[in-house]
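Action item from last week, closing it out:
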Amino acid sequence: FTDVTSRTRAEDQARAAAAETARLLATTEEARRALLAANEEQKRADEALIYERNLLVALMESQPDRIFFADASGRFIKVSRVEAQAMGLASPEAAIGKTLEELRPGEASRRIMATDLEIIRSGRPLLAHVEENIGSDGSVRWDSVSKAPIRNQEGKAVGIVGIIRDITSQIEMQQQLQHASKMDAIGRLAGGVAHDFNNLLQAILGFTELLLLDRTAQDRSYEDIKQIERAAGRAIGLTRQLLTFGRKQRIEAAVVEVNQVIGTSEKMLLRLTGTEVTLNLALAPDAGQILADPSQIEQILMNLTVNAKDAMPGGGRLDIRTERLTLTEDDATRIPESFAGDFVCLTVSDTGCGIPPDVMAHLFEPFYTTKERGKGTGLGLSVIHGIVKQSRGWINVYTAPNQGTTFKIFFPAVQAATDDTQTEPPPAAHPAVPLLPGDGHTVLLVEDEPGVRQLAERILKTAGYRVFTCANAAEALVRFEREGEHVDLLFSDIAMAGQ
């Protein structure tokens, strides 16, 4: 009996042990499967993390923008290659664990870090903030800066991400467009004022000449009146330059070979440069033709040559070049004031002192000059601007301190004239002719400027004409309807305000 009981107990224990073993095996298998699943999940998570990291790296390295990540103390976690290059580092890894101030000590770095730490502290992003940066060589770079805090799972700001985009070209284009708009407004104002002043000066000069007709050189007042005449003549010269700047001066446009104008002007330019400045001409044979007033092209060359010589008091080199260029529609979108087509480019370069940035901002404005009092009117470059704009061209200026200045002037090219389409030369200026006696003939005089109208009336009456005067077109039409049968000649201003 005892032996059976013991055997039964042993069998029960064996069965229990087997069951426990089976349970443990099942648990182990379950744990193994769970571990495998966890490992697989971890593997997928690691792969996803690596993929996301590679995506981030690819994004950072494919962008022209400067990109960085930093922790709450401002130490870099990751930077793009472009950002590393901007900081003067050999590789992005050289920035890891360091602050901007450690990499580039200075007030500018301290200011930037203070801004970054404030963004982290406040949690408020900085979006598309435009900053001007001046390099050690004086060059100017404009950046659009966007920064935002990096938050953890609890929403706490624990770092910062920044994207810095170089927008120098956009800012420069915007400034050029604004400058062009400003110059256009100044041109309209200057042209209008010059037109009015020109009328007044014509009256002054005309009445002065009438006074001289009644006097001889021995009269006490003769020389005084001559001084008035000379001063009025100089003033008229200035107003003509203003009219050119405002594109209101009449021009004698013709098809012009730019190379030919430069060639015929070479002796004059050599006299202007003197012996201390070397003049070099590099004229492309295929430069071509433009539609312009030849005398105004000569004036452009003369004004730029005088300015270049003044910029090289110790001597230097003046280069004048021509070339033919073709601009596409894409080219035109990148160059303010330009348009697609063929152009003749006139380039004038010197090796002088360059133009300071504060002067560049006012370069083509009338009466703006850096020359000593009495040595310049401030109209030289403004006249060039007016001439070029009147010819549908534009000017690009490149300069750097002590590295010289280059003016590139673009004129629309025109097709060379054939035998069938040969352009007639511009008519010569009409010589002065004596006023024919009036013999009682009637003139209808139309002029809105009182001084000019009174001068013309007096001259015509002195010559024996009967004169009907009208201040505007409407008044002239009424007068003509009433007394047109008695009018032998119409003498009218070509353009009057509001007419």
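Closing note: The longest helix spans residues 2-62.
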